Every structure is written in structure tokens, then in C-alpha cells.
TrEMBL record:
A Pfam family: GHMP_kinases_N
One Gene Ontology biological process: galactose metabolic process
Keyword Magnesium: yes
InterPro entries assigned: Galactokinase (IPR000705), Galactokinase_CS (IPR019741), GalKase_N (IPR019539), GHMP_kinase_C_dom (IPR013750), GHMP_kinase_C_sf (IPR036554), GHMP_kinase_N_dom (IPR006204), GHMP_knse_ATP-bd_CS (IPR006203), Mevalonate/galactokinase (IPR006206)
Name of the protein this chain belongs to: Galactokinase
Keywords attached to this entry: ATP-binding, Carbohydrate metabolism, Cytoplasm, Galactose metabolism, Kinase, Magnesium, Metal-binding, Nucleotide-binding, Transferase
Alphabetized PANTHER family for the sequence: GALACTOKINASE-RELATED (PTHR10457:SF7), MEVALONATE KINASE/GALACTOKINASE (PTHR10457)
UniProt similarity note: Belongs to the GHMP kinase family. GalK subfamily.
EC number: 2.7.1.6
Organism superkingdom: Bacteria
Residue ranges of every copy of the GHMP kinase N-terminal domain listed in the record: 114-191
Domain GHMP kinase C-terminal: start-end pairs: 294-363
GO-annotated cellular components: cytosol
Lineage: Bacteria, Bacillati, Actinomycetota, Actinomycetes, Micrococcales
């Protein structure tokens, strides 16, 4: 039985044909933006801490054509949306007004207008092979792919960070997802064969070699198929708790606090802050090990420590991701942790490349025995960020 399956990439020609069917014209071009998987550092981004994501080979393809008015027409082939075709005017898009999945794309135009840019309308057809609800930033891939297309077609002169910021504003203000900037930076700034250590305070990105294949290793992504939702109250509560902890400590963010400062905080705030502080420190440890040329296997225990912290202190894991992480380590992984915003989604496991199938099958068996959905798995390959394809 083959358990590890790489999602099928989408064809540019097929997407262009879909565009022609929908809009009776050829697209001006096709763009791609990847999803991301975060190696370590969860909920540290909005606390001015460090994160360490990679851009995936999986992502979203965007076929686009510039219009002469302020209309945006969008179409997706995703089976997960109830309204695959949406038409709206940019002038009608405003903060707090979600238009479903189209918010992640149309919101980019709103964000650009807030910066005083001249924003033309667009026709957009999109397709993706990032699993939705899996914590792999399918939404950032959509917003950043759209942003890259809009930048090129409108002729805006924006840095990569500014392109990523358009995507974040679309998610925060139109889609209503309170994300930090990590997802979008990873989608825009990824480099093949590298992880990105991002200082979210200075928005400084350090590209760190992360070629696991050369070391006989693989980063196995195990989708628990327990979907998460960043717009839920649980995510907002964690963010609010971090803000309250920082205020109680008299610092602007938890980046400026240490574990020794936490003794006088209420138990809940103490645990929330401890996770953020220690996970940000683990990012620096992992980055240091990789930069120094250490065997990547040495980062495994830090991944497992991160999962324990998310489970006990930040309380964002769920029974099935706990089970998968524990099973992966028992089956031979060097370390495993839930990745993404939490409350479901994916687990990553650092494994020998010839053990990926064995570990994946062990996780399937454990989930089945526990009465959970059967997980699916693929191997994550660090890849390039958002770019024009044609």
C-alpha cells in the first residue's frame, strides 16, 4: 500500500482553458504562489518572535487578465466552495465585508487601494493543490498569487515584503482571518532548498540551507483531516491572551519577555506566554543548528518539544494530532509536531527518506484504531516563492 502521495500539480494549459471558458478571452498570464509548512515557531509571529517556514511545491495557480473598469470576476474549480464564480466591484469591497473564498483575492485590490495605488479590475481563474483546512496556508497561496498577478498587471513597484503585506491585509481585514505575516512572507519569499528564519519584528528574512534529501532525510507532512479554522474564537482567544500577558508584564510584545518574568502572571496567561517565548527560542536553536552544518536529525527533539508546548501550554492541539505526533516518533521519526495555527490540520515528522512510508502507514493505523479519519501524507520539498509562470 502506498500511503505517501504528492498532490497532483495543476496544468497551466488546463487553467488557461478554464479561463477562456469562463471569460471568453485569453488570460494575460499565469502566476503561482506556494503554500507553506512551518518547521517550528507557532503563534510567535504576531508576538514579534521568530518563525521558520518553508515554501511548498504545492500551491495556487492564478490565470489573470487586466480589465479597464473596477470589476473583479473570479472563478475557482475548488469543490469545497458553494459559489465558485463571483463578480463584484472593487468600490463595493470594504473592511469587515467578507465575500467568502473570494475575500482572499478581491481583498488584495482593497488593500492596494488603501495604499493609494491605482487598482484596475481583473478577471481571475484559480486552481490549487494545497489541501484546504490543513494548516498549510492555502489562503495565503491564493492571496499572494493574486497579489503577484495584480502587481505585474498594474505595474506597481512593490518589494516582496510589500506584496506579502497586501495578502495579509486581505486576510485580516476582508476575510476576517487574524493571521500574522509569516504565511504570506513564506509564500512570496521562499527559496528552493532553503528554510526562512523570519524575525517578525524587523521582517528580516535569513535563508537557511535545508536540503534534507542530501542528508537522506524527508519532512513528512501528515494531514490529520481534522480541519482547522483560523477565524474561530479559539485562535482569537490565544492572540488576546498573548496581548494581555504582554500588557501585564509591561512590554510591547512577548518578544521582550523571558520565562523568568512569568511567575506572577495568572496560570492561563503564564502558560500562553511560556509557549510563545520558548517556541521562539526553539526557532533560534533550530536555525543555529542548521546554519552551523549540524546533522538535521539533531533538530528532531526540538520539534517534539514544540508539540508538547502547543499541547500543554498553548492548548491548540487536538487528540488526533497528538496521536499522530506520538505515533510518528514511535515509528522512527526523529521528531514530530503539529504545524500551523492549530486545532487540527497537519503534523510534520522528520524521518529518514526510506522510512517515510513506514511512518505514514503507522499513523494511518493508529488513527483508524482511534476512530479518527484516515490521514493522508506527502513529502514537503522547500520550493521557490510566488512568481509568474507565463
Amino acid at each position: 500500500m502506498t500511503t505517501v502521495r504528492t498532490p497532483r500539480p495543476r496544468s497551466i494549459d488546463e487553467l488557461a482553458a478554464t479561463f477562456r471558458d469562463q471569460f471568453d478571452a485569453d488570460p494575460d498570464g499565469v502566476w503561482f504562489a506556494p503554500g507553506r509548512v512551518n518547521i517550528i515557531g507557532e503563534h510567535t509571529d504576531y508576538n514579534d518572535g521568530f518563525v521558520l517556514p518553508i515554501a511548498l511545491a504545492e500551491g495556487t495557480w492564478v490565470a489573470a487578465r487586466r480589465r479597464d473598469d473596477d470589476t473583479v470576476r473570479l472563478h475557482t474549480d475548488s469543490p469545497d466552495v458553494s459559489d465558485p464564480t463571483v463578480t463584484l466591484r472593487l468600490g463595493d469591497v470594504h473592511e469587515g465585508q467578507s465575500v467568502g473564498w473570494a475575500s482572499y483575492a478581491a481583498g488584495v485590490g482593497w488593500a492596494a487601494a488603501q495604499r493609494g495605488l491605482d487598482v484596475p479590475g481583473l478577471d481571475l481563474a484559480v486552481t490549487s493543490n494545497v489541501p484546504t483546512g490543513a494548516g498549510l496556508s492555502s489562503s495565503a497561496a491564493l492571496s499572494c498569487g493574486t497579489a503577484r498577478a495584480w502587481v505585474d498587471l498594474a505595474g506597481w513597484s512593490l518589494s516582496d515584503t510589500e506584496v506579502a503585506d497586501l495578502g495579509r491585509d486581505a486576510e485580516n481585514h476582508i476575510a476576517g482571518a487574524p493571521t500574522g505575516l509569516m504565511d504570506q512572507l513564506a509564500s512570496v519569499c521562499g527559496q528552493a532548498g532553503h528554510a526562512m528564519q523570519i524575525d517578525t519584528r524587523s521582517v528580516q528574512i535569513t535563508q537557511i540551507p535545508f536540503d534534507l534529501t542530501a542528508q537522506g532525510l524527508a519532512l513528512l507532512v501528515i494531514d490529520s483531516r481534522a480541519p482547522h479554522a483560523l477565524v474561530s474564537g479559539e485562535y482569537a482567544e490565544r492572540r488576546q491572551s498573548c496581548q494581555e500577558a504582554a500588557q501585564a508584564l509591561g512590554v510591547s510584545s512577548l518578544r521582550d519577555a523571558s520565562v523568568s518574568d512569568l511567575d506572577d502572571l495568572p496560570d492561563l496567561l503564564q502558560r500562553r506566554a511560556r509557549h510563545v517565548i520558548t517556541d521562539s527560542a526553539r526557532v533560534e536553536q533550530v536555525a543555529s543548528l542548521l546554519t552551523d552544518g549540524s546533522d538535521p536529525r539533531t533538530i528532531g527533539p526540538l520539534l517534539t518539544q514544540s508539540h508538547v508546548s502547543m499541547r500543554n501550554d498553548f492548548e491548540i492541539t487536538v487528540p488526533v494530532t497528538d496521536l499522530i505526533a506520538e505515533t510518528a516518533v514511535r515509528a522512527g521519526a526523529y521528531g514530530a509536531r503539529q504545524t500551523g495555527g492549530g486545532f487540527g490540520g497537519c503534523v510534520i515528522a522528520l524521518v529518514d527518506d526510506d522510512a517515510a512510508e513506514t511512518v505514514a502507514q503507522a499513523c494511518v493505523a493508529a488513527a483508524s484504531a482511534g476512530g479518527f479519519n484516515q490521514p493522508t501524507s506527502f513529502v514537503a520539498v522547500p520550493s521557490d516563492g510566488a512568481r509568474r509562470l507565463s
